[in-house]
Amino acid sequence: MLIIGITGTLGAGKGSIVKFLVEKKGFEHYSVRAFLVEEIKRREMPVNRDSMVVVANDLRKKNSPGYIAETLFERAKKLGKDCIIESLKTPGEVNALRNKGKFYLFAVDADPKIRYERILERKSSTDKISFQEFIDNEKREMASDDPNKQNISKCISMADYVFENNGTIDKLYKKLEDVLDGIRKKERV
Question: In total, how many domains does the chain have?
């Protein structure tokens, strides 16, 4: 079972990587966002980015910094298929998965203006924000000394592969294809 974790900046293309791996490579997808939305609804909170941050930080504080990723990994392990766990935001989540076997962390980034246009296009309920709110949200999630809070910049620095996604979707998919070929060759050795 190959495990790929995905981290990256807001609107950089994590969903595009997931789509490629699911549709072209047969991976199973486990979403931190979907997991958090389930919990937010259970707690009868509004589904927005602020609630996601509060609930995620609370779950990590009550359980462990890697709790969310570990929970999703346990769900994936039951199927035993290659899987993607998206979107990792703390070093604890990354480290928890590094201890689970064949794990690779992919990070994706792009120019902020390109990323903002992308979030507007996807029309998610959590993405109806101004450019300044977008930048402020990202700053809040980029770095923290608290192991239970988001530290996307540290996660990106821990990545096995970093994808700059300022170009076309075809260019991103070509890079992914090349990286996966390399991983498959390494795993056969």
Answer: 1
